[in-house]
Design brief:
This protein is mostly beta strands and about 120 residues long. It has no helices and 12 strands. The chain is globular.
Length: about 120
């Protein structure tokens, strides 16, 4: 399965973006999908995850602002980001987390920049 992320861009603080992760193959059998982000000089961190049963989890700093969803029929995972803050600036990637390990090949990511 190859992953292609899109939907990033430049947005002002308080704005919104919706990221899309399109998979080249079926994700219906993949238990957990997630969104990660990385800033230069720091490790990639898991921002949000969702299971096949719709159970979600979020990094504390994004709870209440970000919403992850998946559409297995379209092989797509989404991340709705509201009330964006400058500290959300990063390259965002999707993958399939299993514990602390991302199990799929990384895509190119999509840049999100929050700035006035």
């Amino acid at each position: 399965v190859q992953l292609v992320e899109s939907g990033g861009g430049l947005v002002q603080p308080g704005g919104s973006l919706r990221l899309t992760c399109a998979a080249s193959g079926s994700i219906s059998s993949i238990y957990s999908m997630g969104w990660y982000r990385q800033v230069p000089g720091k490790q990639r961190e898991l921002v949000a995850g969702i299971t096949n049963g719709g159970i979600t989890r979020y990094l504390d700093s994004v709870k209440g602002r970000f919403t992850i969803s998946r559409d297995n029929a379209k092989n797509t995972v989404y991340l709705q980001m509201n009330s964006l803050k400058p500290e959300d600036t990063a390259v965002y990637y999707c993958n399939s987390p299993r514990g602390s390990i991302a199990t799929l090949a990384w895509g190119q990511g999509t840049q999100v920049t929050v700035s006035s």
